[in-house]
Structure formats: C-alpha cells, structure tokens
Specification:
It contains 7 helices and no strands. By secondary structure, the chain is mostly helical.
Length: 121
Amino acid sequence: QLFFTSKFGLSVSEADIANVVTYATQILSPFFGLMIDRTGFHMSWALMGIILMFGAHVLFLLSNGLFYIPFVANAIIGISNCCFFAVIWATPVFLVKDDQLSTAFGIFGAVLNAGYAVVNL
C-alpha cells in the first residue's frame, strides 16, 4: 500500500484494489494451463512469464507516477505468474520416473518454500 500511495498518489482503498488485481488474475490459471497443454512449448511459456514479470517491474520503475500503472502492472504480474507456474508445477512429471514422482513433488515444494523463506529475510 505504501508504495502505491506514495509513488502513484492512490488512496488506501485504491491501493488495496491494485494489490488484489494480481491475485484476481489467478482465476486465469486453468485457462493458461489448458493453452500450454494444447500448444506445448512449455519452456517458451515459462520464458514468456519471466519476461512479462520483468516488464511489469520495469513499468513500475519508469511510470512517473501515472495512476493507472499499478493496476496494469499488477495484472501483468498476475498473468506472468499464471504462465510461469502452470509450467513449473508440471515440470517434475516430464523429468522424473512415475515411481519417484511423489518424492519429486515433495522436494520441489520444500525448495519452493525455502525460497519463499529466504526472500522474506
């Protein structure tokens, strides 16, 4: 909230709405998963998600305080999350034998949670 209120001049309620936009776009995750399954090119979709995330952060950086940027950039961040995580969560299925799949997902989840913990430090 503080970032949106100080840089973009949004009210607290508008900043809350801008924050929610990122999570509201997660509704699109199943559709992105369907598109990725239909088209293939899993790593291209993951790369697109990374590029979109980078672009959204550059948009925040170069926005000059335009009031609509938090809404647009957060929507782009949400869409990039849909692209990236739809690919990443399916990756162990392609890399690991079936009899070791549960272990792979357990390790995957542990590494992901460790990453979240380190980022918050």
